[in-house]
Design brief:
Length: 229
């Protein structure tokens, strides 16, 4: 089990925020999972039924979605999960097929609206901390492009540098690949997202992983909660 903690700067800058941590080892490497794909179709159908007739404004009023929208608005950005959920509900699009480990998270993400990144633990270097981005700090995004991370954004960093930013996503060094056997899912929740929703999200990811890797082992499943300091 890897060690992850929150810095004093994170606690001070983001009171009321929480980070969900789900670490799973012993993953069976598979390129496709019929069981998970069937579950994805069920999730899409449920979303279309539950939110039939909803406008964007109505969707934005969900407590979880509203909390993320407030966070992104601070940086004049749009919460991308809102757009992804809209594409399923209003445009009839299906969840993408990336890989079972990635799809396990994304399927849970559109169900709960909780933003989560997935990392290959073998590519992380301790110590790992949840922190706040500094002025003019940069990371190499998953696309390979250099991004100047917005000062004050919630981030995760390891010994080698930034691994993820709420606003710009993951780096290109530690994401899940077809070779990943040990994964860390990190849920980033700004103030206003109920802890029970983060916990439910982690449960859904775990259940999705078990669909294609029933013998996987949960190394840790917990919340880090920011408190005023």
């Amino acid at each position: 089990m890897i060690s992850i903690s929150g810095t004093d700067a994170w606690h001070s800058a983001h009171p009321g925020a929480a980070i969900g941590l789900l670490e799973i080892s012993g993953i069976e490497r598979k390129l496709i999972s019929p069981e998970l794909n069937q579950h994805k179709r069920e999730v899409e159908a449920r979303l279309r039924q539950d939110f039939a007739g909803y406008s964007r404004k109505a969707l934005m009023m969900s407590p979880v979605m509203a909390a993320y929208i407030r966070y992104y608005k601070r940086f004049t950005m749009t919460y991308h999960v809102l757009l992804q959920v809209e594409s399923i509900i209003m445009k009839g699009k299906n969840l993408p097929d990336v890989s079972p480990l990635v799809d396990a998270n994304f399927t849970a993400e559109v169900s709960t609206f909780v933003l989560t990144a997935g990392h290959d633990v073998a590519k992380l270097r301790e110590p790992i901390v949840i922190d706040t981005a500094h002025e003019a700090e940069e990371m190499t995004a998953m696309s390979g492009s250099q991004k100047e991370v917005r000062k004050g954004d919630m981030v995760m960093r390891d010994q080698l540098g930034l691994c993820c930013s709420i606003l710009y996503g993951q780096d290109n060094r530690s994401p899940i690949t077809a070779e990943t056997e040990h994964v860390l899912y990190v849920s980033y929740a700004p103030a206003g997202v109920p802890a029970i929703e983060i916990e439910e999200h982690l449960i859904q990811i775990r259940q999705n992983v078990y669909l294609f890797s029933p013998n996987a082992r949960v190394e840790q499943c917990r919340l880090l909660q920011a408190e005023s300091r």
